[in-house]
Each structure stands twice: as structure tokens, then as C-alpha cells.
Amino acid sequence: MFRALQATFGIAVVVFLLMPIFAILPLAFTSSVFLNYPIPAYSMRWMHELTTAEVWRTSILNSLIIGSGATVLATVLGTLASLGMRRGALPMAGLLRTMFLLPMVVPAVVLGVGMQIFLVRLGLASTYLGVIIAHAVLCIPFVIVSVSAALQGIDPTIERAASSLGARPVTVFRRVTLPLAIPGVVSGAIFAFATSLDEVVLTLFVAGPNQRTLARQMFSSIRENISPTVAAAALLLIVGTLCLGGLGALLRWRQGRKTAAAAA
Amino acid sequence: MRPFIQFESVSKAFGSVTVVNALDLAIEKGEFVSLLGPSGSGKTTILMMLAGFERPTQGAIYLDGKRIDHLPPYRRQMGVVFQNYALFPHMTVAENVAFPLEMQRVPRAEIARRVERALDMVKLKPLKDRRPSQLSGGQQQRIALTRALVFEPSVILMDEPLGALDKQLREHMQLEIRELHKRLGLTIVFVTHDQSEALTMSDRIAVFNAGRIEQIDNPQVIYDTPRTRFVAEFIGETNLIEAKIASVDNQVARLSLGAGLSARAHAAGGLSAGQTASFSLRPERIRLGMAPEGSNALDMTITDCIYHGDHMRVQLARDDFSLVARCERLAGHWTVGAPVVASFDPRDCTVLAQ
Ligand SMILES: Nc1ncnc2c1ncn2[C@@H]1O[C@H](COP(=O)(O)OP(=O)(O)OP(=O)(O)O)[C@@H](O)[C@H]1O
Ligand SMILES: [Mg+2]
């Protein structure tokens, strides 16, 4: 009885979470000019619009540029930070870790306001670099969480063994630590890219008209002219995110299998 | 001339806890020395100081006449085998074994040749393209050993390398390591808490207790004449006898054992009449039945008889004085409750330091 209730509740939550997504997706293929049901006929017209109209094309391109930039920046910095905080090499590593994870919990608006003031000072407001930095700040916690977990999983005696076999610290890092941490770095990068892809709030604050990302463009187009291109863009984002998520899951699965085999 | 490896009053403290206390230890080239002791006695710490992963708080460590305690591990040229093998999980077996040679910038062709030969030596060449996770525990152990040997280090350090293997495989590997030690003339420092492993493998055993060496000597001396109560109890099984010295005459002490029994023991010196001392008497040194000329003979009663497969363990008592004797199964038939004469040579009764 209780189990049935649990199952029903679970399904209800899933439906509640997924409903908006399923509601919007069919509209990407409507032939009507309105973003609502019923769908008179199916067509690729809005998908076509998405890939040909100038604003949409640049926004997709911007998302890719900013996403890649933020991913690279966040992955490098996040990985370095995780390495630094490893095994209490630093005093107050715990406090530092909390600080690094702060962007996850600080309201994005607050971050946005601060970020804008800061970037204006630096002369980076409304530039690609500015947006990339802002996105990277949001992405770094994901990289840190993921890389730290991977580093935690490395048996320190393996590094000791390398060292006793004649490897200098840099070589130990290059030949042993890094290769073993790479799955964590890659999944951190995937999270980072996905985060940057759907980030709107910070972008509203720091991006100029030239750095409109896809998410930002969807946000404004739904207020200006409610065309089904938004649904097409949503479809694109969902497919992109699903691909990234799938890739991440695949990596985690492979890593899990490898460590399970190593532990056996 | 310094010994090959020398610890000179080395101490190690973690915070306020002293783990190794003013250790002096000398190991000759080509020697197989076991560090034996209970958990927490500081064996790993000593090995890690030798390998360079821990720094002594005090004292100096020498290798081949040179002081090494300030050198990082990668400059010490020691092959370390860890308890959990510590193979590189992302490299194949061959890559694992090649690693130390690459670190020494050995030319590629020679690396391939030496890896091949080393894997041949442990009969694992067919597995060279596998990952460590695809090997059994014993195979991983052998690869770890090969990896530590292949770059011809001056010393091999092993920290309970056989701890994770089952009994049969462990015994097989013990023989294999001993064989390698003899054939290649290796200097090996071997940490274990398994006393039979230490006895069968080592040239010398250092018995540790709480960061100090209780006794260091060859296995036979350690077993036959343990110097302290700790060593007597830790290595093998023993009868600990508390006795009052009745008289000392010409290196032979007459003991009164209680329950009206008395016996003679060869006193190593330092004993005087009237004092109380502890003695160790190995169960297999006690004979039941007839007493040969010149041996101690005690009239006792059999209280229990335990079957151990290849031998019997016979419990003897007289009032509150008791002994355990180990007898061959075919040596006789013992009935519980029957009186028996237990005899032993005065030389087998070893006095222990207080
Ligand atoms: N890094 C450390 N910090 C603090 N204490 C330590 C550290 N390493 C070891 N110790 C302590 O030092 C003592 C000796 O440890 P060690 O590992 O040398 O023992 P061991 O003889 O190898 O024991 P075992 O047989 O269980 O491996 C232990 O009490 C341990 O708690
Ligand atoms: Mg240990």
C-alpha cells in the first residue's frame, strides 16, 4: 500500500517536472505562426528559421563561443583549485572549498549586479571576455566538485609508488595523477558547458547586444514576438543538454566500472 | 666502514606521539631482514623513512655510506612493494614494469628488452598487455615485485606484501621471493606481522614493540632463545614460567616452580638466588613419558589433549602450575586424567629479561 503510494507520488513528480518540456517540444514543428495548440500541421519551418535568421544564428554561435570559453577557463581554474585543496596541503582548505562553491548558492541576480559593476571597472562590460569570465564563475563549482571527487578516488600509495620508482613530482602528476583524474575533469567540463548554455540571469547583466546567447535570445523573443522559433530553440537546447548529459553518464559509468574492477 | 644501511638513533614523532624511539639498526648488503611486530609498532613508519616518504624527527639514515634522510624518494633508488600493490591502474602490465626504466631514461629498445626479460622471470609475459584490474591478487603482487626489481635498485622494501593473499599463495610467494633474493643477491627489508613468514624467509629478524627493537638476530636464535617476554610470546607459542631461583651454581639455576616442583635451567647470567624470574619453554621441547639422563623431570597430570592434525597439544597441570606440550601424533597415546612425566633439557628453558 505504502509502496504504491510512493510509486504514484514519484510518477507525479516526474510528470510535473517533465510536462513543460513535453508541452513545448511539439510546437517546434508547428506550421502555425503562433506558439500555441492545436497544431494545424507539422512543418520544419521554424527549425529552418532558427538556422537561417540572423539573430538566431548569431545567438547560437555566441552560445558556443561563450560556452567553450567559459568551459576552458572554468576547467583549468577548477582543476588547479581542486589540486591545491587536495589532502590538506593548504591551511584552511575546508574554508577555501566552501568559498569556491559559493557561486552555486549565491542568487544569480546578486552575482549579476556585482559582476556588472566589476566588469565595467575593468572595461570588460559587454565584451565576450566579460561574459566568459562571468559564466566561468558559475561553472567553477561544478568542475571543483567533479575533479575533487576524482582526486579523492586516487590511492595516494600509487603516487608514492611512482615517486619511489624515480618519478619527480611533476612527472608523478603528469603520468599518474592527471591521467587518473581526467574522467573527473571531463565530466566537470561537461557540467560547465551545460551550465553556461542555459545561463540567462548573469548574461542579462553583463552581456551587450553583441553577446546574445541562445538562452538570452529565447528570453527576449518570448517577450517581443511569441514565435514558435522559441520552441525550436528549446528543442535544440534540450537535445544539446541531453547529449552532454549522456556523455557525462557514459564517462561516469566507465569510470565506475574501472574502479569497481580495480577494487575487486 | 659503515654498514650498507644504517639507522643511527632515529626517532619519529607524529605530533606528541613518538612512534619510533632512538632506533639503531644496521643491515648488510645482500641481507634479508624482516621487521616483525604487532600492529602499530612502527614498522611501516621505519620503512617509509627508509623509502623517503617520512622524515625522521631525529637521527640519521645512511645508505652505502651516504646520508640519505634528506633525499626525496625519487633520488633514493629503492624498489618499494606496497601492501595493496599500488600498480598504476591506467597502464598495462608492461607499461607498469617499464615505468621505472623510463624514469631512468633508458633507451626504448633496451626498455622493451628488459621488461620482456623481467616478465619472463616471473612467468607473466603472456599477461603483458592486460590492465592490473584484470589480474588476480597473486599476479598483481608479482607484477608489483617485478616493477620494483626491474630498475635494479640497491634495496627492495616490502610492506606486508603478502598480507592480502590466501595462505597457499602466500607460502608460494614466500618461496619465490626467497629464491629471487638468493639468486639476485638482493638486499631486502621486509615488513610483516606474520611470525612464521619472518621465520621462514629472513636472514635476520628485528622484533619490534612500541617503536623499539626488542631483539634482532637470526630466526633460530630468536626462536630458541627469546630474550624478552614479548619476543617469547610474539614468536611461536611458549610456556611462560614464573619461578623463584633457589640457587645458582656454575651457570645452572635451580628453580622452584611451585606445587612442589623444581627444575634446572641454564642461566644466561645475572641471576642470583632468592629472586624471581620468567622463563620461556617451547611446547615442542617438552617430552612426555620417559625422561632422558640429565633432563628435568616433572610429575604432572594430563588435563586435556587437543588434536591438531599433524600434532597433539597436551595440557599438563599440577595444582596451579601448568604446561602445554606439543607431541607428535604417533609419539604415544595420552589419556586425560592420567599421570605423566614431563621432561625437558635445562638448556631449553630460557631466562627472559624483566
Ligand atoms: N601520518 C601519521 N600521523 C599520525 N600518526 C601516525 C601516522 N602514521 C602512523 N602513525 C601512528 O604511528 C604508529 C605506528 O604506525 P605504523 O604504520 O608504523 O605501524 P605498523 O607497525 O606498520 O602497524 P601495522 O602492522 O598495523 O601496519 C601508529 O600508532 C599510527 O597510528
Ligand atoms: Mg604497517
Keywords, separated by commas or semicolons:
heterodimer; A: 264 residues; mainly alpha; MetI-like fold; B: 354 residues; alpha+beta; Rossmann fold; OB fold (Dihydrolipoamide Acetyltransferase, E2P); 2 domains; 6-stranded mixed β-sheet; 5-stranded antiparallel β-sheet; 24% helix; 37% strand; binds adenosine-5'-triphosphate; binds magnesium ion
Oligomer: heterodimer
CATH topology term of the largest domain in chain B: Rossmann fold
Low-confidence stretches of chain A: none
What is the approximate shape of chain B?
Answer: elongated
Mean pLDDT of chain A: 86
Q: Compute the number of structural domains of chain B.
A: 2
Which radius of gyration of chain B do the C-alpha atoms yield?
Answer: 25 Å
- Please state the second-level CATH architecture of chain A: Orthogonal Bundle
How much of the sequence lies in strands of chain A comes to under 5%
Radius of gyration of chain A, CA atoms, in whole angstroms: 22 Å
CATH superfamily of the largest domain in chain B: P-loop containing nucleotide triphosphate hydrolases
Helix content of chain A: over 70%
What is the CATH first-level class name of chain A? Mainly Alpha
Structural class of chain A: mainly alpha
What order do the helices and strands of chain B follow? EEEHEEEHHHEHEHEEHHEEEEEEEEEE
Any idea what the shape of chain A is?
globular
What would you say this structure looks like, in words?
- The complex is a heterodimer of chains A (264) and B (354).
- With 264 residues, chain A is mostly helical.
- Helix content of chain A is 76%, strand content 0%.
- In chain B, α2 (93-103) packs across α3 (108-121).
- In chain B, strands 6-7-8-3-9-10 form a 6-stranded mixed sheet, sandwiched between helices. Chain B has a 5-stranded antiparallel sheet with strand order 13-12-11-14-20. A 5-stranded antiparallel sheet of chain B has the order 15-19-16-17-18, with no helix packed on it.
- The model of chain B has no long low-confidence stretch (mean pLDDT 89).
- The interface between A and B is medium-sized, with 21 and 29 residues.
- Bound molecules: adenosine-5'-triphosphate and magnesium ion.
- Residues 43-44, 159 of chain B line the site of magnesium ion.
- The site of adenosine-5'-triphosphate (ATP) has 11 residues of chain B, from α1.
